[in-house]
């Protein structure tokens, strides 16, 4: 059994789902009526599905882009105008985004929709679901989905409107970030007693107590940045609540990459061990919200000539039924973290000269001289065959101003490619079955190690060094570390959580977000938070813009 999609029969609860604090209206396609109203605990869980439908919306695409392309982890440059996308990718890289950036507007709308959907569900189910432990758990899980959305908003936009009452359309200005943090902390702690401690297929994709503790740990690890007050010991305590449960473990070296395969889920190796809270994806699922709700990593990450190609032009290495767009790659500054030849995490990357699956035969590409190099051989239709080689540097050789590397084979093969979310050959579309983890056990281990190293009190007989070495023993055959620094923890996090949308959060905490990488030179610290997007002002005129914008 691959997974249990808890929202597969999700029905929306009224003619519209309104986001009260941001005044965003989302059209509903179905409605709960007396004929279909839930009658037992299982059907009430199904009825709570819209929150999870909304949550999966932008997670694997626009949200990933905002978190990743604004760091040294990833870049999506244009190629002959393709993938310019109104300059939104360029703005992410150069740190010169405006409030009109498409990712910022889309993700604010996405998170607002999650919040409004949960507010509505809490209002309806809170009144109609029979009292008891099942109701308490169901409502607590919904509140945790809302808490995650508010955490993302607080992390990315700082001061944000705070409203949890469905049906109140009074415009509200932003609540200070420290107050949002305090509300979130109290809200999460209040839900923990009602959340399940069961880790199984039945609870996969839903918040358990351990997902709540993981979110608290993430908040406490960043508390000094969010509120001005360090909370290292609270972070450690939240991590210990997960560790002491004995419900999770670090995936073995043999299972690490399998945790992200298309077959991942509650019964699959790797993900079964590590995933504390994950978002299930299924290409057969039809979305009812105006979001992508698809897992498209291979579309962006796989080189064009390693997907479906014209006869003789390449080799469909991954046996996927489409030609990848292939605009995304990492930058040399980030890939420098992968400097241990014995580390299994190196295998999530495609680098250098490529071969067929036998590992020996060169993967040859047939094109023309002009198709290979449009700058030096433009218009030359002489046949040209070469071995596919992915080069480390992304060079804007056509136009820096247009963020354009060119529309030829040289350009399309720039940058090392991440295939952590391994291409899904079973899907008939570009969508993938790979579930996306939000919180993993390895993150708990490294958050605790970092909190100890920053001044927290070691517990459970573990030190920062022993925790890190415990993780590394399952990732590399190299010798254990004999000492540990904050920088070594940062580098380890870069290796462990590549392509999981946490690097921006890490860079800010480590004071590295103002650094220089690729073509980016902007060092403005106010860019640690994004501007309130244009669309938000259109529906809530009481908002005020963030400093610097």
TrEMBL record:
Its main location: membrane. Keywords: Cell outer membrane, Membrane, Signal. It comes from the Bacteria. It is found in: Cell outer membrane. Pfam families: SusD-like_3, SusD_RagB. Residues 88-221 form the SusD-like N-terminal domain. Residues 405-549 form the RagB/SusD domain. InterPro entries: SusD-like_N (IPR033985), SusD_RagB_dom (IPR012944), TPR-like_helical_dom_sf (IPR011990). GO terms for cellular component: cell outer membrane. The keyword Signal applies. The keyword Cytoplasm does not apply. Residues 1-20 form the signal peptide. Belongs to the SusD family. This is Carbohydrate-binding protein SusD. The lineage of its organism: Bacteria, Pseudomonadati, Bacteroidota, Chitinophagia, Chitinophagales.
């Amino acid at each position: 059994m691959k997974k249990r999609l808890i929202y597969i029969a999700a029905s929306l609860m009224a003619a519209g789902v309104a986001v009260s604090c941001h005044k965003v209206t989302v059209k509903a396609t179905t409605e709960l009526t007396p004929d279909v109203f839930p009658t037992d605990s299982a059907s009430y869980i199904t009825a709570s599905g819209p929150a999870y439908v909304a949550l999966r919306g932008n997670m694997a695409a626009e949200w990933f882009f905002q978190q990743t392309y604004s760091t040294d982890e990833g870049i999506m440059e244009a190629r002959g105008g393709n993938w310019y996308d109104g300059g939104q990718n360029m703005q992410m890289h150069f740190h010169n985004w405006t409030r009109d950036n498409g990712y910022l507007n889309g993700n604010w709308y996405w998170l607002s929709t999650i919040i409004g959907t949960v507010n509505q569900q809490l209002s309806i189910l809170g009144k109609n679901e029979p009292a008891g432990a099942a109701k308490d758990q169901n409502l607590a899980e919904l509140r945790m989905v809302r808490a995650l959305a508010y955490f993302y908003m607080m992390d990315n936009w700082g001061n944000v409107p705070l409203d949890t009452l469905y049906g109140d359309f009074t415009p509200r200005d932003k609540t200070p970030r420290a107050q949002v943090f305090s509300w979130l902390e109290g809200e999460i702690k209040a839900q923990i007693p009602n959340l399940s401690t069961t880790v199984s297929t039945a609870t996969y994709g839903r918040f358990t107590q351990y997902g709540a503790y993981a979110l608290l740990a993430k908040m406490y690890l960043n508390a000094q940045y969010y509120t001005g007050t360090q909370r290292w010991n609270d972070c450690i305590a939240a991590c210990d609540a997960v560790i002491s449960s004995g419900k999770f473990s670090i995936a073995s070296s043999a299972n690490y990459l399998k945790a992200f395969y298309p077959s991942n889920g509650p019964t699959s190796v790797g993900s079964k061990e590590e995933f504390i809270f994950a978002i299930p994806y299924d290409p057969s699922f039809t979305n009812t919200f105006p979001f992508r709700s698809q897992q498209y990593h291979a579309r962006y990450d796989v080189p064009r000539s390693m997907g479906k190609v014209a006869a003789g032009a390449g080799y469909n290495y991954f046996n996927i039924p489409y030609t990848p767009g292939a605009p995304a790659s990492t930058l040399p500054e980030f890939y420098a973290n992968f400097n241990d030849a014995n580390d299994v995490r190196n295998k999530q990357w495609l680098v250098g000269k490529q071969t067929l699956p036998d590992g020996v035969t060169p993967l040859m590409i047939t094109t023309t001289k002009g198709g290979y190099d449009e700058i030096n051989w433009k218009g030359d239709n002489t046949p040209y065959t070469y071995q596919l080689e992915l080069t480390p540097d992304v060079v804007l050789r056509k136009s820096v101003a247009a963020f354009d590397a060119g529309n030829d084979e040289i350009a399309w093969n720039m940058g090392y490619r991440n295939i952590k979310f391994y291409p899904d050959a079973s899907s008939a579309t570009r969508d993938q079955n790979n579930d996306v983890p939000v919180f993993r056990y390895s993150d708990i281990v490294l958050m605790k190690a970092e909190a100890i190293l920053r001044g927290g009190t070691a517990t459970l007989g573990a030190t920062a060094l022993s925790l890190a070495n415990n993780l590394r023993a399952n990732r590399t055959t190299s010798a254990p570390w004999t000492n540990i620094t904050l920088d070594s923890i940062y580098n380890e996090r870069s290796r462990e959580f590549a392509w999981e949308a946490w690097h921006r959060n890490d860079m800010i905490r480590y004071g590295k977000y103002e650094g220089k990488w690729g073509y980016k030179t902007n060092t403005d610290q106010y860019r640690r938070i994004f501007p309130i997007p244009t669309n938000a002002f259109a529906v809530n005129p009481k908002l005020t813009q963030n400093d610097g914008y």
